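INFO batch 0412 | record 1 of 1 | parsing
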Amino acid sequence: MRFQTHSNSRRQVGRHLSAAFVLAAWFPCMIWGRGAFQKPGGPPDVQAEASYRQGEKLYDAAERGDIKTARRLLDSGVRINVDFSEGETPLFYACRSGKIDMVRYLLKRGAAANWTSVAWFNTPLDEAARADNVAIIHVLLAHGAKVDGPPGSIPPLYMAADQPSLHALRALIAAHANPNACFPFGIEDNALIRAVIRKSLPCVTALIRAHADPKLANDKGETPISLAKQMKLKEILRVLEHGVG
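INFO prediction complete | emitting tokens
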């Protein structure tokens, strides 16, 4: 298995995070690789490398929805919250690939619903929102996932606002997500700004109905209204300035 960065689907998030990485100079130390199991001038740590390989198998099983293999690995002692892949646990992979039965199983075995990746600052709920998977969103929320994410993580509503469909967005709004929750690390973008940048009138309308603030500025002083004016989005600007009936 090769751990993937999913760079294409995270392009927008990656742009925001480039400035945030200066806050995490220790980040490379958190990314596991084969070199982590060899001390300078010494032999490889065979036991640690074997543990790593077992962890890889759990990621594979989670991504494929192979509960039988996951059960065997967990029963053999593999950690449920193993985080070899950019700080993501197997639960992220199950959410991302839409394997709802695996999501339920991992949560039942003690997977952390609010785990935050050290690389992308995303959570399992972010991945469910990004995949527009309402069923998994509901499962995670029922198991204690914070609808706005833990402190320092990306708000799931921001992820949902970046998707073509409104299913995840509406599910999070129905779960009382904060429509004004901002991107962390002083960047301060929010779901409404993201929707305007995407030129999505339906998304903007849904967020305004949820009482998103069209005058809330990001770190650059941009507001949804100012961006709509700059981009000459007449219909979106009308909704932002006058609301919806």
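INFO post-check: Confidence is low (pLDDT under 50) at residues 1-11, 15-40.
INFO record closed
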